[in-house]
Design brief:
The protein has 14 helices and ten strands. The radius of gyration is 21 Å and the shape is globular. Helix 1 packs antiparallel against helix 2 and helix 3 packs parallel to helix 4. It has an eight-stranded mixed β-sheet with strand order 6-5-4-3-2-1-8-9, covered by helices on one side. It is an alpha/beta fold.
Length: 379
């Protein structure tokens, strides 16, 4: 669709889609983009992520959330009634998209109750899971109450590989559950998160998904574990070379042609030129995260400013988080950079790499230029 003049409202958007003969199956993409931009401008909490539990039936060595039961330190999971209260307030404030996650969210005792509650409010619900509990009974539940998407994280291409990453031999169970979900037509997508523990096996996963025509995405970064997980802070991310080879394999398997460029001919990254106010991503602008204790942040990793919606109410908490997002220091060099639209804009990643707010990591800049040189991103 021609984006030279942004539509003023949904009626105008739909009229333009019809005039430009955009296929109806693509309408939702354009409507979602329009609402994404509008809610960011107006500071409406359009998208919410609810971390129902930090508990999990896997023990992934790199997980930034998972706690053992003993690490809860006598704290209890929120009761479904409290989650419903938060969700109701969020809907009243404008939330129309929600992600249920964990830990393993399907372990949460009130999962189905909360899922159905959100759907009853007209909220589009996504579910993030490791697939172990995507049983026949649960698949039939989702078939009857169709989610917007089910994202299944896959950690290996065989039992040995699974055990190396997760501590459990669950490959075959997850594989069968994915097939079951596909057979009944669930909107399923696999997430592959490379790490030092997964190593080159990530390539085997990508090949399997491609050969079996299973929709998948490769996450291009990994977050360090939270302090309360007790997991070490050693290097867990894979190397830029491994990421490049993985994305090149994905392109090859999909039949895409990569146009490699001489890195010396690519635009340079500009020098630092001060700071400006306002976060570049959606965190706190039109999205929020609420963890298993009921604490609200802009996202699950950018948590320097926290709010307590159970004590202060959702509206008060959202205003606090949104204000922090508007005042967040951002690097002006990014605004003037040729790689602005294709670079990793996540401020949590830059902070994880040792940068203060308002500064971007040179490591991210260099990796982005390498991706551009390989033809994996286009300017």
């Amino acid at each position: 669709m021609n984006e030279k003049k942004n539509p003023r409202n949904l009626v105008e958007l739909l009229s333009r889609l019809q005039q430009e003969k955009v296929p109806e199956e693509q309408y939702k993409i354009h409507i979602d983009y329009f609402l994404e931009m509008q809610t960011r401008k107006k500071g409406i909490p359009w998208k919410g992520q609810f971390e129902l539990t930090p508990l999990c039936n896997l023990d992934c060595k790199m997980c930034y959330v998972h706690l053992q039961k003993g690490q809860l330190k006598n704290q209890s999971l929120l009761e479904p009634e409290l989650w419903r209260e938060l969700m109701e307030q969020a809907v009243s404030a404008g939330m129309r998209k929600a992600v249920l996650t964990g830990g393993e969210c399907l372990l949460y005792p009130g999962f189905e109750e909360l899922y159905l509650y959100l759907q009853s409010k007209g909220v589009e619900v996504q579910v993030y899971t490791n697939g172990i509990l995507l049983t026949e009974e649960r698949v039939l539940f989702f078939k009857k109450n169709m989610p917007a998407r089910i994202q299944v994280s896959v950690y290996g291409s065989c039992e040995d590989a699974y055990e190396k990453v997760t501590g459990h031999r669950e490959y075959e169970r997850v594989r069968k559950n994915i097939e079951l979900a596909r057979q009944v037509g669930l909107p399923l997508q696999v997430a592959v998160t490379p790490s030092v523990y997964m190593g080159k096996d990530a390539r085997n996963i990508v090949r399997y998904m491609s050969e079996n025509r299973i929709p998948y995405q490769i996450n291009n970064t990994i977050f360090a574990p939270r302090n309360d997980t007790g997991r070490g802070q050693e290097k867990i991310d894979t190397t830029p070379d491994e990421y490049i080879e993985l994305f090149k394999l994905q392109a090859q398997l999909s039949g895409a042609e990569l146009c490699r460029r001489d890195e010396k001919m690519l635009p340079d990254v500009p020098e630092d030129s001060g700071e400006k106010k306002g976060i570049r991503c959606a965190a706190g602008m039109n999205s929020f995260h609420i963890d298993w204790k009921g604490t609200m942040t802009g996202c699950d990793m950018l948590n320097s400013v926290k709010a307590e919606p159970l004590k202060k109410g959702f509206d008060h908490s959202w205003k606090l988080i949104h204000k922090a997002a508007l005042e967040y220091p951002a690097a002006t060099k990014c605004e003037n950079c040729s790689y602005n639209s294709v670079c990793v804009s996540c401020p949590a990643i830059h902070q994880q790499l040792g940068e203060k707010p308002g500064h971007c990591s040179l490591m991210v800049c260099e990796r982005t230029r390498r991706f551009a040189a390989e033809g994996l991103i286009s300017l």
